[in-house]
Design a protein that fits this description.
Strand order of the largest sheet: 5-4-3-6-1-7-10-9
Structural class: alpha/beta
Largest sheet: 8 strands, mixed
Helix content: 10-25%
CATH class: Alpha Beta
Strand content: 25-35%
Number of domains: 1
CATH architecture: 3-Layer(aba) Sandwich
Number of helices: 4
Radius of gyration: 15 Å
Number of strands: 10
Oligomer: single chain
CATH superfamily: Dihydrofolate Reductase, subunit A
Distance between the termini: 16 Å
Length: 173
């Protein structure tokens, strides 16, 4: 199974404010920058509970009918009507095994801690990081401490009229 990250960060590397808010990101994702095209390639999402709870505060469910697996050992907040979401727990390798058993071929991994855990476990193959031209000073970092270097190979960098800069990488090791 392939696992990819598609995430927006502040220029100083934060995916959310300390309270979990990502109000510094452009409304509605801003100008088109490949998200819709990326989502077409994804079979399911794997997100952390805090990310799930933040997504629940949005005006509408952003994932359509894509299955969303929320990593949590606690019961989930109520799932919006029409959404396909369920709780899953375990270490990243166990999660991947469960997804493979369900026929998932490409998962979108999202949420700070979830991304960090999957990266440390060597289970992310592709990173697409869109930097928003704003400094927020502190918050939840995209990357945490690692026990070893994670070597990346640069695929492409794209810039957009609004100032968004997106870089894509594949994980080498």
């Amino acid at each position: 199974m392939r696992a990819s990250v598609f995430v927006g960060t502040s220029l100083d590397g934060f995916i959310a404010r300390a309270n979990g808010s990502f109000d510094f990101l452009p409304p509605g994702g801003g100008e088109p920058h490949g998200y819709d095209e990326f989502m077409v390639t994804v079979d399911a999402l794997v997100i952390g509970r805090k990310t799930f709870e933040t997504v629940l505060t949005l005006a509408s469910w952003p994932y359509g009918k894509k299955p969303v697996f929320v990593l949590s050992t606690r019961p989930l907040a109520p799932i919006p009507p029409g959404a396909v979401a369920e709780r899953m727990s375990g270490d990243p390798a166990e999660i991947v095994s469960q997804l493979v058993a369900r026929g998932i071929q490409h998962a979108y991994v999202d949420g700070g801690i979830t991304i960090q855990r999957f990266l440390r476990a060597g289970l992310i193959q592709r990173l697409i990081i869109t930097r928003v031209p704003v400094l927020i000073g502190n918050g939840i970092p995209l990357f945490g401490a690692t026990e070893r270097d994670i070597v990346l190979s640069h695929v492409a960098t794209r810039q957009y009229a609004s100032g968004l800069v997106q870089s894509e990488y594949v994980v080498v090791s």
